Amino acid sequence: MLTKNRITAVQHDSNVCADIQGFDFNDYTADDIATVRDFWLQYGVIRFRDANISDQQQVEFSAHFGEFVIHPKQLQEGGHPTHPEILVISNAMKDGRPSGAMGNSEATWHTDTWFYEKPPAGAILRAVQVPETGGDTYFLSTYQAYETLPNHLRDAVAKRQIFFQSAYDKTGKLRLGKTKPTSEDFREWVGMVHPLVRKHGETGRDALYLGGTAEGAWIVGMPLDESTDLIAQLWEHTTTTDDVFVQQWNAGDIMMWDNRCTMHRRDSFDPNSIRIMHRTTTAGERPV
Description:
With 288 residues, the chain is of the alpha+beta class. It is 18% helix and 29% strand. The protein has five helices and 20 strands.
């Protein structure tokens, strides 16, 4: 437990998340925001239980942590009717069409929009309506993933860059605005190159950066078979850790994570249940 400026962070035993207590979304100061930011940077993931705030309050709170980023899904089915800063994640239907993004399926381990030149720094996700079971969200630390690498893997990733194709999403669907590639070699497709180990722009700590999938990823300059094998080892190392925080949602809960040093995933849930989440996303720097 750590208290600063009347706000307390209670660390979860997974070492990935801390519960924030004593922050009042209806009455906070610049010092309060600075304290929340300190905890966010320290723990990587923070949680506000039963915050029960409005969309407008979420937008106002999020604005203190950077400029807003429009998630790709906000340009499709996930747009909010009155707050363009909010991505609606929902499996509910309206007039026969999805009223939000992502449906009820599982979302596997990833960092958000890893194929951007400047992936977002943070995300703030608020539960509006949740099913009785399922739809849990899991978090892990990519600081820890890097710091616990065996020596031979740490040597293998040193000063390496990783290429992520950006033509197709994880489901194999062509991304909005992208053209179907003509080459069968994904390394020739449109994509983004980032360091395989990125230095956090604010904390200065090193974190392993694997993006969102091993498919369509290539360690630049390495023979493809060697790259595929190394990436598989890195994913195995990163995602088999016991230090995972599991968020079992209550309506009103808010999770805030640092996209530069964490990965997350989501369980599927019964399609006959309704899950509605409102998310805001803040801008980050280009990984170095």
